[in-house]
């Protein structure tokens, strides 16, 4: 068990301010060519001197993954995120490299990506084959402490309709290796090809969940339980629910906003579970369409109501989410922080909008990468 897992497991559950933690994935880039660089192992090796096992490699040699310890409040979380990002950035500079927070690679020959050497990844390549060709993608994951796995599973039923709102809120992947995709969150589309990905299925019990995992394993869709890539799931190694639907946030401040929103959403959902509410069941196809609209438009266009399919301005979708969790934010003392962060994001634009603004301002994708490097620790 890691130190993070041990500290979460040993901490009494707080139903108002449960512990939260963030995992982020970053791209390593060559500051001269601005292309993604397959040298993540060098960056991780240096950063581990300060971050220990809270930094590691990912499936491709372009990616670094880093994680915070469990945190109780926004100030603590932001401090940990900024330190984590600063350490990774300094390690990259020491190797003549840089790091950026973007859901997809802006520049570089990323298809197929160089895969990190690991027996587990070898099994995955044998099983999933060309699905790995577009696996150079970076996400942000939020963990929220929950008292047991059964409740974590039932909470996921309540999270499902709100996952598109989180996609729109943190959309940060408009480009793919020198091309504007026309989407705000192209990473979502790349990820959706996998056999066990996207919104989690509606499940009524831990026994049903375990039977489904057994069936998915028997079918070959899972190499192991860790390849159950649903966007919300009970963590496999921590006493948490893990929400893993968004692009990596563009800044540490946006990661804090995301974590507070997710924590409040989990808190509201847990209260409903404990009151006997089984959770809503939007039509599967409309939920899928809501995902697509959120990935396409981000915060700048329209989302889709996952119950009716009706188009709704994306900002109203997020406002609806904030209204849904307002009581939990008030109880935890996080309401002002979240409202301030949301007001800033609406004024500054999403990560995707800022990447496109950088392209307009600099006139090149190289300028977009330079902008991402400069913004990274913030």
TrEMBL record:
Pfam families: GCS2. Its EC number is 6.3.2.2. It is an enzyme of class 6 (ligase). The keyword Ligase applies. ATP-dependent carboxylate-amine ligase which exhibits weak glutamate--cysteine ligase activity. SUPFAM superfamilies: Glutamine synthetase/guanido kinase. This is Putative glutamate--cysteine ligase 2. InterPro entries: GCL_type2/YbdK_subfam, GCS2, Gln_synth/guanido_kin_cat_dom, YbdK. NCBIfam families: gshA_cyan_rel, PRK13517.1-1. One of its GO terms (molecular function) is ATP binding.
């Amino acid at each position: 068990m890691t130190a993070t897992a041990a500290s979460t497991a040993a901490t009494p559950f707080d139903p108002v301010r449960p512990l939260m933690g963030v995992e982020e994935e970053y791209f390593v880039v060559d500051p001269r060519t601005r292309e993604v660089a397959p040298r993540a192992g060098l960056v991780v090796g240096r950063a581990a001197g300060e971050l220990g096992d809270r930094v590691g490699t990912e499936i491709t040699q372009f990616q670094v993954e880093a994680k915070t310890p469990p945190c109780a409040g926004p100030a603590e979380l932001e401090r940990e995120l900024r330190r984590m990002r600063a350490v990774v950035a300094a390690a990259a500079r020491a190797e003549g490299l840089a790091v950026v927070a973007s859901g997809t690679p802006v520049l570089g020959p990323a298809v197929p990506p160089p895969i990190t050497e690991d027996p587990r990844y070898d099994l995955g390549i044998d099983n999933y084959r060309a699905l790995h060709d577009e696996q150079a993608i970076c996400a942000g994951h939020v963990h929220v402490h929950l008292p047991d796995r059964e409740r974590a599973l039932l909470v996921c039923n309540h999270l499902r309709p709100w996952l598109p709102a989180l996609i729109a809120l943190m959309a940060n992947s408009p480009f793919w290796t020198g091309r504007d995709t026309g989407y705000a969150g192209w990473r979502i589309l790349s990820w959706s090809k996998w056999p066990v990905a996207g919104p989690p299925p509606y499940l009524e019990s831990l026994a049903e969940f375990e039977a489904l995992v057994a069936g998915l394993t028997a079918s070959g869709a899972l190499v192991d339980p860790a390849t159950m890539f649903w966007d919300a799931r009970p963590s496999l190694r921590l006493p948490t629910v893990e929400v893993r639907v968004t692009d990596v946030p563009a800044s540490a401040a946006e990661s804090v906003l995301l974590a507070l929103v997710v924590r409040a959403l989990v808190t509201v959902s847990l209260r409903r579970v404990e009151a006997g509410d089984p959770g809503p069941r939007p039509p599967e196809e409309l939920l899928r369409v809501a995902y697509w609209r959120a990935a396409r438009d981000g915060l700048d266009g329209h989302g889709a109501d996952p119950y009716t399919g009706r188009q709704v301005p994306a900002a109203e979708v997020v406002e609806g989410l904030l209204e849904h969790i307002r009581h939990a934010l008030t109880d935890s003392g996080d309401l002002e922080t979240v409202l301030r962060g949301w007001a800033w994001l609406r004024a500054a634009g999403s990560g995707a909008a800022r990447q496109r603004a950088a392209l307009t301002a600099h006139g090149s994708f190289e300028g977009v990468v330079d902008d991402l490097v400069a913004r990274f620790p913030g």
